[in-house]
# Entry
Amino acid sequence: MGPVEDRGRSRLLLRMPAWRVELQRVTTPEFLEVCEAYELVWDAIMAFERIDATDQAAEFRELADFLEVEALSIALQH
# Structure
């Protein structure tokens, strides 16, 4: 697992502590891709918020919500 995937997984664990065990045990490439995407989306959200681009930040928050559901779905299947 690379550093971006690791940060994404850590962020997911913070956002969904009730699913910590399930999120920690999955190591499939598909799940790690979602972790990477999740971290990159949050990088974008924070960048948009720094420049007060609230509409763009809101769009990326929706994407982050989708990725949270996707990550949990993958974790629960394994």
In short: The CA atoms of residues 40 and 50 lie 15 Å apart. The chain has a mean pLDDT of 97. The radius of gyration is 12 Å.
